[in-house]
Design a protein that fits this description.
The structure is a single chain. By secondary structure, the protein is of the alpha+beta class. It folds into 3 domains: about 140 residues, PAS domain (Beta-Lactamase, 2-Layer Sandwich); about 90 residues, Signal transduction histidine kinase, dimerisation/phosphotransfer (DHp) domain (Helix Hairpins, Orthogonal Bundle); about 150 residues, Heat Shock Protein 90 (2-Layer Sandwich). Helix 1 runs antiparallel to helix 4, helix 7 packs parallel to helix 8 and helix 8 runs antiparallel to helix 9. The longest helix has about 55 residues. It is rod-shaped. It starts with 5 loop residues before the first helix and ends in a 6-residue tail after the last strand.
């Protein structure tokens, strides 16, 4: 039952509990009804036997008693249940006997009540002796058994119907009871880092669900405050660092161009400029991500020929990879019109090509393909690689995430994360399509039509 919904589980368990309760109750009821019917039969046997004794003692010696068997005619009507009567005097001589009793059959019955078979039927028999008269009287139990069977059949017919009603009713009741929980789950699914302002409707009751709703809303309030503080700090810190880094870079460049700086100071100044440039790039990326988190980031959409942008990015990548001896392959159509922000789209391509260069093997290959697939432009950037990643893994796109084998590769783990966030801002996505230790492939998927069109 792990895959069943909670509503269905409650309905099933409700039906099961009722079934567990009704089955022993039904068995007890059947036993009780059987014994009640049996007691009623025994009361009839006892009352009729007393009448036989009274009549036999009253008419003793009358010829009409023996000839016409008056008692049998009066007290032994036909129909159901079938009755068996035998009356004897104190010497044991049979005074009268019903036609359905063979001689000697009832003579050996014990005193009191007993179960016997007469004419192949189970019967309840009673032997009483009083006033010098012995009455052996029996009634078949077909009516008792039939009444019990009819009740059992009715019970078996009603049980599935009752369980169905319980199941449906339990589902309806649990559905209504769990409606706030479903609403809570739907709201939670819609809440993202970009939109923490959603809340559940205020609870109108003070039950457990109402308390859960209030606690959930209060938790979202705290999360939103914390997230806004963290986002604001990140954006402010990145912004504050940007100006001094720009000044620092300009100062180092001035020193490198100055004739007063000794030549032996040029190499360390070049290294300082490189690190300053790298730090400025990291700060710029963090500032961009912070703005996207705070939804303060806007794209300037325009229809662009993605093929031209890809060709331009490839030319830059070929220059960047000259010392690696990499082989570039491209399958790009002459025209692929996509609504994008040109600078940000270029940044996505540059980040993925930079990743393909840095994590490639010497004399390896980089392959870029682009084409339309349904309502999307799909661009694949693949490269030879010794890395092996899980296709479903999202760690590669986490900020600052770097695998152990990439420790010697320059970078800070922001390129893939930024590429994916920018693609999603365009209404698309960047995904890892495969990485088997020989070939790694990333896919960019962007809509061919702007969401506002």
């Amino acid at each position: 039952m792990r895959k069943l919904s909670l509503r269905l589980k409650i309905a099933l368990w409700s039906a099961l509990v009722v079934a567990v309760a009704l089955v022993p109750t039904g068995i007890f009821t059947l036993i009780h009804v059987y014994h009640e019917q049996l007691e009623a039969t025994q009361e009839r046997l006892l009352g009729t036997s007393r009448h036989y004794i009274d009549m036999a003692s009253k008419h003793r010696g009358e010829s009409q008693w023996g000839a016409e068997q008056t008692a049998i005619k009066i007290f032994h009507p036909g129909g159901q249940p079938e009755r068996f009567v035998e009356i004897a005097d104190e010497q044991g001589e049979v005074v009268c006997r019903s036609a359905n009793v063979a001689p000697g059959v009832m003579a050996g019955l014990p005193q009191g009540f007993s179960y016997v078979h007469l004419k192949g039927k189970p019967v309840r028999a009673l032997v009483t002796e009083s006033k010098g008269v012995v009455v052996r009287y029996a009634m078949d139990l077909d009516e008792v058994y039939d009444a019990t069977k009819e009740l059992a059949v009715a019970y078996l017919i009603a049980l599935p119907f009752l369980l169905t009603v319980i199941y449906v009713g339990g589902g309806v009741i649990s559905g209504k009871a769990l409606a706030p929980v479903r609403l809570l789950a739907q709201t939670a699914e819609q809440i993202t880092a970009a939109d923490l302002g959603k809340r559940l409707p205020a609870a109108t009751t003070q039950d457990e669900i109402g308390r859960l709703t209030n606690v959930f809303n209060e938790m979202l309030d705290r999360l939103q405050v914390s997230f806004n503080q963290a986002t604001r700090f990140s954006a402010d810190a990145s912004h504050e660092l940007k100006t001094p880094l720009t000044l620092l870079r300009a100062g180092v460049e001035d020193l490198l161009e100055s004739s007063e700086v000794p030549s032996h100071m040029k190499p360390p100044l070049n290294a300082l400029l490189e690190q300053t440039t790298l730090l400025a790039s990291i700060v710029g990326n963090l500032l961009l991500l912070s703005r996207m988190d705070a939804r303060q980031f806007k794209l300037d959409f325009a229809m662009q020929n993605a093929s031209e942008i890809l060709e331009s990015c490839l030319e830059d990548a070929i220059i960047m990879a000259e010392d690696r001896g990499l082989n570039f392959e491209a399958q790009i159509p002459a025209e692929l019109m996509v609504p994008v922000d040109q600078s940000r789209f270029t940044q996505i391509i540059h980040n993925l090509l930079d990743n393909a260069i840095k994590y490639n093997i010497p004399q390896g290959t980089i392959k870029v393909t682009a084409r339309e697939e349904e309502a999307f432009a799909v661009i694949r950037i693949a490269n030879t690689s010794v890395a092996r990643h899980e296709v479903a893994s999202q760690q590669l796109f986490e900020r600052f995430y770097r695998e152990e084998h990439s420790a010697s590769v320059p970078g800070r783990g922001l390129g893939l994360s930024l590429a994916r966030e920018l693609a999603r801002a365009h209404g698309g996505d960047v995904t890892l399509e495969g990485s088997d230790g020989h070939w790694t492939e990333f896919k960019i998927r962007l809509p061919l039509r702007h969401a506002g069109e």
